[in-house]
Amino acid sequence: MNVNEHLWDFPHEMTLKVMGAVDAPIEQAVIEILNLHLDEFDSTSITIKPSSKGNYVSVNALIVVHHKEQVEKIYAALNDSPHVKIVF
Predict the structure, then answer these.
(1) Which residue from 10, 50, 58, 86 has the highest number of Cβ atoms inside 10 Å of its Cβ?
(2) Domain 11-87 maps to which CATH number in 3.30.70.260, 2.80.10.50, 3.90.180.10, 2.40.50.140?
(3) CB-based burial label for 3 (10 Å; 0-12, 13-18, 19+)
(4) In sequence order, which ranges of 1-88 are alpha helices (DSSP H)?
(5) What is the pLDDT of residues 52-77, one digit of tens each?
């Protein structure tokens, strides 16, 4: 993800949406990545929603990012995870 820093106000609160297979440990993968890249992450902000056909699950996390590099590292780590199919 390429962040145009001049378009963002930091710190910035955002909802991160990640999708993965229903049988993958997607929630744990997201929590581990966010704990690694965020100083303060509250895992109770996570919500889980199954897809309409039940094959996938979306994990939504409310996060606060403080700079461009942090956003880029989070997206890169999520995209590198074998459990993540799509990051929004």
Answers:
(1) 58
(2) 3.30.70.260
(3) middle
(4) 26-37, 68-80
(5) 999 999 999 999 999 999 999 999 99
CA separation for the pair 33, 6 (Å, rounded): 25
- Contact 70/78 with Cβ under 8 angstroms? no
Residues 6-15 have a mean pLDDT of: 88
Predicted pLDDT at 7: 76
Q: Which residue has the tokens 């378009």?
A: 7
The neighbouring-strand residues paired with 14 are 63
Q: What does the block give as tokens for 38?
A: 């965020």
Give the start-to-end residue ranges of the domains of the chain: 11-87
The reported pTM is 0.90
- Parallel/antiparallel/unpaired status of strands 12-21 and 46-50: unpaired
H or E element, residue 77: helix 68-80
